[in-house]
């Protein structure tokens, strides 16, 4: 794994480089969506720099078209063409252009950190620290943080899954007239200490037999148990009987799980067996 990751980073460093930011990294897209006219960006001052020309040309702007800003750009873009997705705001072009401006005796910051709102097209226009978009983000982050908190507070320390099992027959008929279904129950102890669990039926007439109760489960562990659930034959409606079981933790907290028994009218039945017959037990 280390060799694989090392190889990937090496490949990225020697060949893929800025293409990772350009094509693979979602951050640039995300940032593009979040930006507004008050976001700090690296920008070229078109009003001052254009049209490019010789330093002594009266009709030309301050840009002398030396291309230094493009040469130093790790993303290979020309910032004079405007704000671009590929720009990683490294400010390499700012430093390069400032060096050029010093050499030709012009004011620095032809390329600089600024905002669209602070551009010379709107002189004197202030840049508000908090915009409407800021409030929207604050509201969204607060809502998400609140949901996370509620999720943490309401976090169930027991996870239970119940799945009906079938060994060729959908259900079995017992000699006493009851219908038997077999279930696999997965119980996960999400608490930070070992816990003991018991289980009982929460539906009148439905009996649950689970070998090995109570279950002792170490923290963070999941165990699979088999449960044999039986109900009177006449309790089924169109072959189905919804029922519930309750998993009781040693501190008294309960977790209810709903499931459905299948009985007469729902599919093939196994040969009748008695309670004394060996059932599959874990
Ligand atoms: S800030 Fe960096 S990435 Fe952006 S245009 Fe300038 S040199 Fe290129
Ligand atoms: S480094 Fe400055 S002067 Fe040279 S091309 Fe870029 S913007 Fe123009």
Account of the 3D structure:
The chain is α+β, with helices and mostly antiparallel strands and 282 residues long. It folds into 2 domains: 16-124, no CATH class; 158-270, Sandwich (Immunoglobulin-like). Helix content is 26%, strand content 27%. The chain contains 7 helices and 12 strands. The strands form 3 sheets. Strands 3, 4, 5, 7, 9 and 12 form a 6-stranded mixed beta sheet that branches. A 4-stranded antiparallel beta sheet has the order 8-6-10-11, with no helix packed on it. A hairpin with a 4-residue loop joins strand 4 (171-173) and strand 5 (178-189). The longest helix has 22 residues, at 132-153. The protein is elongated and about 110 Å long. The chain starts with a helix and ends in a 12-residue tail after the last strand. The relative contact order is 0.11. The model is unreliable at 271-282 (pLDDT under 50). Residues 42, 72-75, 77, 79, 87-93 line the site of one iron/sulfur cluster. The site of one iron/sulfur cluster (SF4) has 14 residues, from helix 6.
């Amino acid at each position: 794994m280390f060799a694989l990751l090392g190889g990937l980073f090496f490949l990225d460093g020697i060949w893929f480089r800025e293409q990772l930011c350009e094509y693979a990294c979602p951050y640039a897209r995300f940032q593009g969506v979040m930006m507004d006219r008050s976001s700090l960006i690296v920008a070229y001052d078109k009003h001052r720099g254009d049209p490019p020309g010789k330093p002594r040309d009266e009709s030309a702007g301050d840009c002398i078209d030396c291309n230094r800003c493009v040469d130093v750009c790790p993303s290979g873009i020309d910032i004079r063409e405007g704000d671009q997705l590929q720009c990683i705001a490294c400010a390499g072009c700012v430093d390069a252009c400032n060096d050029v401006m010093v050499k030709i005796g012009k004011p620095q910051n032809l390329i600089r950190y600024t905002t669209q709102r602070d551009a010379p097209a709107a002189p004197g226009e202030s840049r508000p620290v908090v915009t409407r978009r800021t409030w929207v983000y604050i509201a969204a982050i607060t809502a998400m943080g609140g949901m996370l908190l509620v999720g943490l507070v309401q976090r169930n320390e027991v996870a239970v899954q119940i799945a009906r099992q079938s060994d060729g027959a959908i259900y079995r008929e017992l000699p006493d007239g009851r219908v038997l279904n077999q279930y696999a129950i997965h119980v996960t102890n999400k608490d930070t200490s070992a816990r003991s669990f018991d289980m009982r039926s929460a539906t009148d007439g439905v009996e649950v037999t689970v070998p090995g109760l109570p279950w002792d489960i170490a923290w963070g562990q999941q165990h699979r148990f088999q449960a044999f659930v039986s109900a009177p034959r006449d309790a089924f409606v169109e072959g189905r009987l919804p029922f519930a079981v309750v998993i009781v933790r040693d501190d008294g907290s309960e977790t209810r799980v709903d499931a459905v028994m299948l009985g007469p009218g729902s599919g093939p039945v196994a040969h009748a067996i008695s309670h004394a017959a060996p059932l599959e037990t874990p």
